[in-house]
Amino acid sequence: MFIEQSNVKCSICGGNSFGRHRVLWPELIAQWNLAAHEVDYIDRQQGEKCTSCDASLRHIALGNAFRTAVSEGRTIRQIAAAKIDLDILDVNGAEVISDTLSELPNYVRGDYPELDLQNLPYSDNSFDVILHSDTLEHVPNPLQALSQCLRVLRPGGWLCFTIPIVVERATRSRAGEQKSYHGNPAMGNDDYVVHTEFGADAWTYLARAGFTQIGIEVVSFPAAHALMGRKDII
Ligand SMILES: [Zn+2]
User: Which residues of the chain carry a pLDDT beneath 70?
Assistant: First the structure.
């Protein structure tokens, strides 16, 4: 049983009032073999939102990771208003965070799968920060995708991302299993097939891809965290 913290402050707008609704559906819960308390914290991760700016807990975790990456204590809105000069690649977007960061002068947005995370069309050492949000679980080879992120980051740059993590078990590949989708499976769109169900060892993927400094931003354990990996500064 986990103790959940609830004194969350929104990294995007600074708000501290939250509403909640259910996100998971019965078929996905069965496919993922989720226990009731796991359903509860994953619903919180995706369905508990800031009443001021609509950021979910996972968006807030990603926002905190971004603030750490750029050594900022200000909110994402304040950082965007300050027009800081950083090359940012945002893959897939994270709703209110992306809407806000897109105000920055050197913001680049790419959407998976049109933008192939396993073969990024950018030169080595191009970005100061890369963000992706609940995308890596949909990529067939997550290690290859992380290696590509490392390649296009500048030395000392950070990758910040969220993935659904079932914290009490190890990562498992869904290769050879019944297809499981995020989003609406009736769409029949394989872009949203889940290839990897990440577990407690999710951070090791960063190490295996070559990141030399690894962090986890915790907003509410076990409901909301973001992973961070830094490219060696030397
Ligand atoms: Zn907010």
Answer: 1-6, 176-177, 181-192
Write down the pLDDT at residue 182. 64
Calculate how far, in angstroms, residue 224's C-alpha sits from the geometric centre of ligand 1: 15
Could you tell me the two tokens for 19? 């509403």
Tell me, in angstroms, the distance from the centre of ligand 1 to residue 163's CA.
20
Taking ligand 1, which is a single-atom ion, which protein residues have CB atoms under 5 Å away?
A: 10, 12-13, 15, 50, 52-53, 55
Distance (Å, whole) CA 65 – CA 219: 10
Residue 191: the pLDDT is 53
How large is the angle between the packed helices 36-47 and 57-69, nearest 10 degrees? 60
- In the prediction, which pLDDT does 183 show? 57
Does the global pTM surpass 0.85? yes
Is there a contact between 142 and 118 (Cβ–Cβ < 8 Å)? no
| Residue ranges per structural domain of the chain | 79-230
What pLDDT sits at residue 2? Answer: 42
CATH classification code of 79-230: 3.40.50.150
173: β partners: 196
d(C-alpha 213, C-alpha 200), whole Å:
18
Q: What is the pLDDT of residues 189-222, one digit of tens each?
A: 555 688 999 999 999 999 999 999 999 999 988 8
168, 135 Cβ separation under 8 angstroms: no
For the chain, the straight-line distance linking the first and the last C-alpha, in angstroms and rounded, comes to: 42
Neighbour-count burial of 142, counting CB atoms closer than 10 A to its CB (0-12 exposed, 13-18 middle, 19+ buried): buried
Tokens of 116: 């192939």
